[in-house]
Amino acid sequence: MSTHSIDELTGFAVDLGGTKIAAAAIENGTVTDVLVRRTDGNAGPLKLVSELADISRQIGFKDGDPIGVAVAGRLDAKGLWSAVNKSILTDLDEQPLAEKLGQHLGSGVVALNDTQAAAIGEYRYGAAKCTGAAAYLTVSTGISAGVVLNGVPLQSPNGLLGHVGFMTSRHGTRRCGSGRTGTFESIASGRAIEAKATELGFGSITSERIFECAASREEWAQQLIEESSAAIAELCANLAASMGIERVVLGGGVGLAPGYLELVKTHLLDEPALFRPEIVHSGLGKHSALFGALSVAIDRKANP
Fold first, then answer.
1. What is the rounded radius of gyration, in angstroms, for the C-alpha atoms of the chain?
2. Which residues of the chain have pLDDT under 70?
3. Environment class of residue 88 by beta-carbon count within 10 Å: exposed (0-12), middle (13-18) or buried (19+)?
4. Residues 21 and 39 sit within 8 Å (Cβ to Cβ)
5. What are 103-143's pLDDT values in tens digits?
6. How far is Cα 102 from Cα 164, in angstroms, rounded to an integer?
7. What local confidence, expressed as pLDDT, does residue 133 receive?
8. Is the pTM here over 0.90, yes or no?
9. How many other β-carbons are positioned within 10 Å of the β-carbon of residue 54?
């Protein structure tokens, strides 16, 4: 893996998640400008690619600049982009993402999965430094992980590696947008928390508002957050058991919410000591995937 330092990072990066698209201009390791738009999950691939290109240009990208694009969903070895949870990104199946972006932004664009990009960013510059077996776990609209073992970011030919939100939990009963039943994503994600609140009669409510209600000691909201954090603790134990993960870097809108990490740690105490990885907050905050994606783009530009 590259050894360039964070202050050598200059270029552009875009991160498309289930909730928002963020684009950043980065100069000498500092984010100098950011644009954020809401993701339209029903837009379809052509419009999403056009959105990615447009926001890149608006942030100042010009032909020849290094740019990394991190996206939610599955990117296989051929660069084909597909949704796994089709309730978040619809009509997205085996789209040649890098090729289509290249038609807008030039042939130098680099595309990779968003949590893989975040794991690379955290391993190189953030909270996963000097860790032999690390996972970046995002708990947001959906749930997924990027894994770095012995300095190597893991990926599979079909691009499914790291989609741990679609593993099943002992607490799960609901069907999720992946087609599986009882997944961690159907229990613990921001979208799952919101859906449960709606079922309880609280209308259309955001996960941010639910956390505010929990902080105000509203019992229904506290219970939803407890259920989510307990499931994530179970998932962290599974990562330790299946891949020997030593440190989990927690990110995402839910993962970074006040008090959430402490709840996960508390629930993790219910697991045997062997299956309790260290859990820490993202060192790069909401910019993990942006730094990781640009870092990979700079590597590819130097070694095409």
1. 18
2. 1-3
3. buried
4. yes
5. 888 877 899 999 999 999 999 999 999 899 999 999 999 99
6. 30
7. 98
8. yes
9. 15
Residues 6+ apart with CB under 8 A from 272: none
Given a contact cutoff of 8 angstroms between Cβ atoms, the answer to whether 153 and 113 are in contact is no
Cα separations in angstroms, 193 against 29, 100, 162, 265: 35, 35, 22, 19
**Residue 137: how many CB atoms within 10 A of its CB?**
30
The Cα–Cα gap between 165 and 142 comes to 7
Of the candidates 25, 20, 7, the residue with the CA atom closest to the CA atom of residue 68:
25
Residue whose token pair is 């993960």? 245
CA 89 to chain centroid:
14
Residue 107: CB atoms within 10 Å: 11
The angle that helices 288-302 and 114-125 make with each other, rounded to 10 degrees, is 80
Q: How many CB atoms lie within 10 A of CB 193?
A: 24
Tokens for 67, please give them.
């740019």
pLDDT one-digit tens code per residue, 237-267: 999 999 999 999 999 999 999 999 999 999 9
d(CA 294, CA 31): 12
Question: Comparing C-alpha atoms, which of 304, 301, 300, 291 is closest to residue 119?
Answer: 291
Q: Taking a C-beta distance cutoff of 8 angstroms, is the pair 188, 176 a contact?
A: no
Q: What pLDDT score was predicted for residue 3?
A: 60
Q: Nearest CA to 180 among 199, 198, 166, 162? A: 166
